[in-house]
Amino acid sequence: MREVAIAGVGIAKFGRYDGQKGRTNKEAEDLGEEAIVEALKYADMEWKDMQAAFAGSCEQGMAIGHRCIGRIGETGIPITNVEGGCSTSLIALRHAYQAVATELYDVVLALGVEKLKPGLLGAWPDPIWKKMMGLDVIPAQYACNMVRYMEDTGSTMEDFARVAVQERHNATLNPNALFFDASEITMEEVLNSRMVAWPLTLLMCSANADGATAAIVCSKEKLRSKEKIVTIAASVQTGGVYGRGETEGKAGGSVKIQNLNHGELGAKQVWETSGYGPEDMDVIGVYDAFSPSFLWDLEEAGFCKPGEARHLLKEGYFEIGGKLPVNTDGGIMGRGHPTGATGIAFAIEIFRQLREEAGPRQVAGAKIGICHTMGAGPNSVFTMLKR
Amino acid sequence: MTASEKKQVPVSEGLWTTPSSPGEKPQLIGSKCPGCGEIVFPTNRRCINCQNEHMEDIKLSRKGKIHAMTTVMLRPPAYYKGPVPFSIGWIELPDGVRVNATLLGAEPDSFKVGQEVELVIHKLQEDEEGNDIMAFGFAPVEA
What we know:
The complex is a heterodimer of chains A (387) and B (143). With 387 residues, chain A is of the alpha/beta class. Helices cover 33% and strands 19% of the residues of chain A. Chain A has helices at residues 28-43, 64-69, 88-101, 128-132, 138-153, 157-171, 187-192, 262-274, 292-300, 309-314, 331-335, 339-354; strands at 4-15, 52-56, 79-82, 107-114, 195-197, 200-201, 210-219, 231-239, 283-285, 368-375, 379-386. The radius of gyration of chain A is 20 Å and the shape is globular. In chain B, a hairpin with a 6-residue loop joins strand 2 (29-32) and strand 3 (39-40). Chain A binds chain B through residues 120, 122-123, 127-129, 131-137, 139-141, 143-145, 147-148, 151, 194-200, 242-243, 250-257, and chain B through 11-12, 37-38, 48-49, 67-74, 76-82, 86, 88-90, 92, 96-98, 100-102, 109, 113, 124-125, 133, 135, 137.
């Protein structure tokens, strides 16, 4: 398999584009078009250079890739739409990477798009009887996982609030974030915000948003610029493992069978196959659709021991200026969560860090980074980039 | 409809036993794998752990301990007609299975990890014909 480089990236700033209260209205296709055009400009390429595309969204309906690309060109290339919950666009990127690595194509676009109603991630498509019993409320099932994590590690609501504060701070340094223009928040505000399902408060939840992200991958030969080349060092995807239940599987699942969950399994595979370990990473993105998973994602991926993340967080270890900067652009909590676009947003921040383009968020000397999403299914995708 | 015509209808068939003698209490029905011993609820013909296709019905213990719980402050968007806030949780039964269920019979935010709870069959809501739709839940064990 040959090396795959990232030629260009683009983002339609995450925001609310519903035309309400003086806001601009933009369709999902407008957002997708913006992201693609920016990526083409960055790559110094034209639409006709694209040989294939992988696109995805969670809720935009059929043919989202075609509908966005149709704003720009129709050149007969294969366009494949994928869905993988919060991992959607990292899955699209993985397919684009594989297509170039295996020499099927030389230049491929990966795209993620989402336009959502304001609010929280809602209900899982359970059978109606479970809905009638009130068992389908995603934040409530998530809260049960938090309760187990607190039991097992001694983590507290203050720890979860501390994550939200750091991420909202980082977002003020990221012009493409939903919360770029918003004021920072305090621990008290997070703890006193409306209770969604104990112990999950509103400000521990990410906010739905609209947005799009794009990345163009290609063989090294096809790169227009040969400076600061960033390649995809690994892209590992896993699915649910028996006994670990839905999502991170802490509350439910098997009593007797103790398998690694899909995130732990993916981490094991990425460290074993890439030749790098967690200690080699200069900058990382971890999955934080709700602020508590920032902590257990770090632990399950092997960046620290179980129960250790909250202590390191308190010491500033994961700040932009810390030993291992995490979610330097604010992560999902800071950027907002256009679910289909979130995955590539993680990869774009690692890319910018390695290209020394992160401005006030820059981690000095960053040469290798990794990002991780967990999606409904469940699935897990780790994507490692190196310079 | 007269009181005598009003029926109790389960929210879904086959989730719990119908007592056949006085003094017998309902039990949830799970599936046990003859191959690997795994137990799941609700029932499933196939074992997701070892792919054995002959899982057997097993009547589950009525009592268990709360493994995790939460007080839900949001009204679920559709189908749910019960009170808000309400409590749900995962209850670990000594048979070796965890069950996702409503927690009732006490203030929603009073439930604790490790608390002993007992199966309750309760009315959720009425259907279009005025029958009582019944569901399962767990409540604190009577002192």
